[in-house]
Every structure is written in structure tokens, then in C-alpha cells.
């Protein structure tokens, strides 16, 4: 999916919502455990009730690969079920060099046909470059994350008194461009989103941390939105685990609808 198609979906739905499919077998409603594939049964209902409000889905790969071969089957079935006009993100956080990165890219882009993948930049250009060789696919580079440990490295000053996350953003724009690279920018760092937007004015940001992690959607839009919206704001637990009963799909849809209505307001405001 190219940038214009993604923006078209945002305009069509008045939404920049990404639903995180962090599907945990220990948290899904108990009645699903009797199903042949409980994970896919859960995801299917989440998708059925949220697709009209979401422009992206982001399965966290760890929740699937932890279940071995069966988990990978559930993931592929989920991916195949997502409507073709909705952007898909493999939240895999891969980042190795040479042939290893090339094989990761083939796995997620060719074999599974994800639109994008999250990539860790720590090993530099040769760990990111292989993912950028696939037309129509995106790298979503970890830039400034919302976890507590992000303070350990990401904000440390480097040569020229620039924080490391700034160096990552500036350097990586020599590898990719706004049509094939996005950045992960945590919502709980509202005051930093403006800084990142100044460094990457035309790129999309994938923004986790809204909802259960306490990030402010208003601040994200105020500091992060650009002429093409430029935001995919992820919500996982607040949507998919809104209910543990048989009404979980309906409740997920209601929570997604709430976020969509707020996003529609913010798209008009900013």
C-alpha cells in the first residue's frame, strides 16, 4: 500500500486508528477455548467489529510465535482475513544484518504479505536496507519509544549534543523516504512528538501508548499531525480486551468507534 492509498483510507474513514492484535490465549474469553483455533476465532470477531473504524491492524508477532507452528497458522489466517484496503503491520522488531535481514524481509513481505514491519535500527544501515528493497512495502523504524527503558539509550546525547533518537531519524532518511519509511514515536512522550515531527515533517508515525499506557490522543494530534495526517495511533488492550464475555467483539467495536469519533474531530481541528 502506498502513501496516497493509506491517506485515502484515513480520509474515507475519518480515522487514523491502528488496532493492535496482541492476542493472548490467557486473556481471551474462556468460551473461545473450545474452538479449533481460539486465537483466530478471537481475532476474526475483533476484525469484524472494528474494521469500519480502523485503517491498520498490528499483530504483535511474539504472541503468535510463542505458540509455535500453531501460532504462525493463526497469524496467517488472521492476516488473510483482514480486508485488503486496511494497512497491516508486522510488529516484529527485527534488526539483523545481510542475508538474515533479507530472509526476515522475505518471510514477512513475500511469504506472509504484510504491508510493513517494525525494525530496530541499532545495527545500522545494513540491518535496515534489505527491508527497503521491496516495492510497496514499509519499514517502521524504532525511533523514540514509550517504555521506561527507552531512557537508557534513546535520549542520551551523542556527537554534536544530539540525542540518539535524533541521530537515528536524521541518518535513516539517507536510507529511505516518506514513501517507504515510518517511525515509532511513543504517545507518552507528547512533548517530544513535536521535536520528531520537525526532524521528519513528511513521514508517517506509528504511535503506541494511547489508552492503557496513558498517552493523550489530543497531544499526539496537536504535535504530530501533518498535511497527510501522518499518524497511525495504535490501541491494543483498550479495544481487544474491553470485555472478557461473549460480547467482546461488540465491546471492542464500541471502543474503536469512540476513538474514531475523537480522531474525526482532531482531523478537522488540526
Overview of the molecule:
The protein has 270 residues and is α/β, with parallel strands linked by helices. The protein has one domain: TIM Barrel, CATH 3.20.20.70. The protein contains eleven helices and eight strands. It is globular and about 60 Å long. It starts with a helix and ends with a helix.
Give keywords.
about 15% strand; 8 strands; alpha/beta; 8-stranded parallel β-barrel; single chain; TIM Barrel
Write the layout of secondary structure elements.
Layout lengths: L2 H11 L3 E5 L16 H13 L3 E6 L2 H4 L3 H13 L5 E8 L3 H14 L4 E4 L5 H4 L9 E7 L19 H9 L8 E5 L4 H10 L5 E3 L9 H8 L6 E5 L1 H4 L7 H22 L1
Parallel strand pairs: 1-2, 1-8, 2-3, 3-4, 4-5, 5-6, 6-7, 7-8
Helix/strand/pairing category: alpha/beta
Query: Could you give a short account of the major beta sheet?
Result: 8 strands, parallel, barrel
Low-confidence stretches: none
State which percent range the strand residues make up.
15-25%
Instruction: Provide the succession of SSEs.
Output: HEHEHHEHEHEHEHEHEHH
Distance from N terminus to C terminus (CA atoms, Å) equals 25 Å
- The fold-level CATH name is TIM Barrel
How many strand units? 8
Roughly what percent helix? 40-55%
What is the domain total for the residues?
1
CATH architecture: Alpha-Beta Barrel
CATH superfamily: Aldolase class I
Give the number of helices: 11
Estimate the mean pLDDT confidence: 94
Short description:
The mean pLDDT is 94. Helix content is 41%, strand content 16%. Strands 1-2-3-4-5-6-7-8 form an eight-stranded parallel barrel, surrounded by six helices.
Amino acid at each position: 500500500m502506498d502513501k496516497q492509498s493509506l491517506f485515502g483510507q484515513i480520509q474515507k474513514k475519518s480515522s487514523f486508528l491502528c488496532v493492535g492484535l496482541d492476542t493472548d490465549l490467557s486473556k481471551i474469553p474462556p468460551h473461545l477455548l473450545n474452538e479449533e483455533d481460539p486465537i483466530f476465532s478471537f481475532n476474526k470477531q475483533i476484525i469484524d467489529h472494528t474494521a469500519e473504524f480502523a485503517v491498520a491492524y498490528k499483530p504483535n508477532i511474539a504472541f503468535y510465535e510463542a505458540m509455535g507452528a500453531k501460532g504462525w497458522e493463526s497469524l496467517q489466517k488472521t492476516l488473510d482475513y483482514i480486508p485488503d484496503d486496511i494497512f497491516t503491520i508486522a510488529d516484529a522488531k527485527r534488526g539483523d544484518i545481510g542475508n538474515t535481514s533479507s530472509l526476515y524481509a522475505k518471510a514477512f513481505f513475500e511469504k506472509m504479505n504484510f504491508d510493513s514491519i517494525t525494525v530496530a535500527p541499532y545495527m545500522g544501515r545494513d540491518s535496515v536496507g534489505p527491508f527497503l528493497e521491496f516495492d510497496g512495502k514499509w519499514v517502521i523504524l524504532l525511533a523514540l519509544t514509550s517504555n521506561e527503558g527507552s531512557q537508557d539509550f534513546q535520549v542520551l546525547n551523542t556527537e554534536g549534543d544530539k540525542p540518539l533518537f535524533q541521530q537515528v531519524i536524521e541518518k535513516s532518511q539517507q536510507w529511505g523516504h516518506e514513501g517507504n519509511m515510518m517511525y515509532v514515536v511513543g504517545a507518552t512522550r507528547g512533548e517530544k512528538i513535536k521535536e520528531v515531527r520537525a526532524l521528519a515533517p513528511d513521514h508517517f508515525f506509528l504511535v503506541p501508548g494511547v489508552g492503557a499506557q496513558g498517552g493523550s490522543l489530543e497531544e499526539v494530534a496537536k504535535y504530530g499531525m501533518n498535511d497527510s495526517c501522518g499518524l497511525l495511533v495504535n490501541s491494543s488492550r483498550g479495544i481487544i480486551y474491553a470485555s472478557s464475555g461473549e460480547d467482546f467483539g461488540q465491546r471492542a467495536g464500541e471502543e474503536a468507534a469512540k476513538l474514531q469519533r475523537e480522531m474525526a474531530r482532531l482531523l478537522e481541528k488540526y
